[in-house]
Amino acid sequence: MSKESVNKTKVTTSLPQGGAGRGFLKHQDTARLDKWLWAARIFKTRTVAANACKNSRVSVSGVGTDGSAAMSAALAKPSRTIKCGEVVHVKKAPVTYSFRIVNCIENRVGAKLLPQVYENVTEQKQYDILEMSRISGFIDRQRGTGRPTKKERRQLDDFNEMPMFGFDGEYDDDDDADLFDFDE
């Protein structure tokens, strides 16, 4: 066998359509929500996806009779079964992303195949909020949480340097000796 015939054989062999090979989508009618969130690369791990569901950061709205998404969204458990056409809402502070399910999958796929898995239907208003938070820096940071700002750091330093209760910070052993002298 020559090199040319070996190369021709490699080119002609390919995986069957819809097989389990890398780069193929295995179509299903339904899927678990936590598996779909992980497989669609919305969350990095399945555990993080399940925790997001448990902490009320994921909701699912059903499909209406005319094919449009129903207006009410129900909070979802990780084991909830989802179908094609439903809209999944994911809260990742400060934005709530919305995805219409195009294909129910439970196996993770490459990033190039994501348009075949979901359609991003997030409102433009949400992206504006995201852009504002990037520009402004500390948006919605509660006072006292996280790392202190420069101003707060200076206030803490000033507070720590203040003398408390009349003590000047120096300690003298002779003063304590007088307190515990019981011979007098």
Tell me about this structure.
This protein has helices spanning 3-12, 33-39, 46-54, 124-136, 150-161, 173-179, and strands spanning 30-32, 58-63, 69-75, 81-83, 87-92, 95-101, 118-120. It is α+β, with helices and mostly antiparallel strands and 184 residues long. α2 (33-39) crosses α3. The chain starts with a helix and ends in a 5-residue tail after the last helix.
What is this structure's SSE topology?
Elements: H1 3-12, E1 30-32, H2 33-39, H3 46-54, E2 58-63, E3 69-75, E4 81-83, E5 87-92, E6 95-101, E7 118-120, H4 124-136, H5 150-161, H6 173-179
Antiparallel strand pairs: 1-4, 2-3, 2-5, 5-6, 6-7
Number of helices: 6
CATH topology of the domain at 25-136: Structural Genomics Hypothetical 15.5 Kd Protein In mrcA-pckA Intergenic Region, Chain A
User: Which descriptor suits the 3D outline?
Assistant: elongated
- Kindly report the oligomeric state of this protein: single chain
The structural class is: alpha+beta
The unreliable regions are 1-21, 64-70
Beta strands, count: 7
Helix content: 25-40%
Give the strand order of the largest sheet, numbering strands 1, 2, ... along the chain: 3-2-5-6-7
Q: Write the CATH architecture name of the domain at 25-136.
A: Roll
Order of helices and strands: HEHHEEEEEEHHH
Summarize the main sheet.
Answer: 5 strands, antiparallel
What's the CATH first level of the domain at 25-136?
Answer: Alpha Beta
